[in-house]
């Protein structure tokens, strides 16, 4: 059993190429999965900041806000 497991991890002598390729693949897959979540969070934060600045500007000028919060 351990001999076949060792040969599996050795990948017929190509382990130095195969395992890093798996590592790169799963790293890219993870980044591809997380990037939209971080982008959404950043966009929502920027939008909240814009809305707060707009509301502050409207309060200074005496206009009513058109956005409902």
Automatic annotation (TrEMBL):
InterPro entries: Haem_export_protD_CcmD, Heme_exporter_D
Transmembrane segments: 14-35
UniProt membrane topology term: Single-pass membrane protein
Primary site of residence: membrane
Coiled-coil portions: none
Subcellular location: Cell inner membrane
The keyword Cell inner membrane belongs to this UniProt entry's keyword annotation: yes
Source organism, top-level taxon: Bacteria
Keywords from the UniProt entry: Cell inner membrane, Cell membrane, Cytochrome c-type biogenesis, Membrane, Transmembrane, Transmembrane helix, Transport
KW Kinase (keyword) present: no
Family: Belongs to the CcmD/CycX/HelD family.
Stated role: Required for the export of heme to the periplasm for the biogenesis of c-type cytochromes.
Protein name: Heme exporter protein D
Species whose genome carries this gene: Dyella flava
GN (gene name): ccmD
């Amino acid at each position: 059993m351990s001999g076949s497991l060792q040969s599996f991890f050795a990948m017929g002598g190509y382990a130095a190429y195969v395992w890093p390729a798996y590592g790169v693949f799963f790293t890219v897959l993870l980044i591809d999965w997380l990037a939209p979540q971080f982008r959404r969070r950043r966009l929502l934060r920027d939008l909240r900041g814009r809305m707060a600045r707009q509301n502050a500007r409207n309060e200074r000028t005496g206009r009513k806000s058109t956005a409902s919060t």
